[in-house]
Amino acid sequence: MISVMTFNIRFGLADDGMHSWEHRKAAVASLLRQENPDFIAVQEVNDFQADFLRERLPEYGSIGQRRPAAARWQSNVILHRRGWKCLREDFFFLSRTPSVPSRFAGSRWPRQCIIGHFRRNRRHVICVNTHLDFDETVQIRSARLILERLQRFPAKEPAILMGDFNATPDDLCYRVLTQEAENEESRPKAGFVNVFSPPYPGTYHEFSGKTGGEPIDWILFRGPLRLRGADVLTHRVEGKYPSDHFPVRAVFEMGDGECSAKSA
Hints:
single chain, Deoxyribonuclease I, Chain A, 12 strands
């Protein structure tokens, strides 16, 4: 079995009053310790938040934190239980020049993606963590770039794509990631599957705890994985909502053959 979580922990420098990072960081750490997944994809991570998570979760290694970083820099970090060894990682910007700090035209922020190829014993898995911008055209270009970079990794290995996509499954970038290209050999095939079926559960709640928000945080997967279960964690931790996004988690059985969206 392999367990994963995606979680936008909310920009630590945001002026959120009673919901500011200092008031909820202990709840974030408690939640992650309680759930204890193999991989945690966290978005909107300031350096001091990444340092805090590493301190509180010493059983995890991490990839994706960019150093040095500007004062208001946000990273996408993959925390991995230390039983998983990272064989290779690829950090890049969602832009026409992925290897240097940059953004697509129309993107509000310089968005990034981190891909890691992990091994535990004889099992391999590719994990992807990203955070897309708001513009639809930028989202589509970003999705295609992520698929192109995934071509650098073994095609037969199971892959799990997680993040805050700032889009719902009704948007075009979702179709890019979940539908195979037809008669377009120049574009990489996707074929990712969502861990949820319609109606998709809401994940963005603005610290309200309401469950009817936009389903913008996704876990997608492909390859030899069988989904055993998935849910959105909507409860308070230590009396607080850890973030303005609900975390999403999923459990898979690893094996041979094609992926399966059927859960036990």
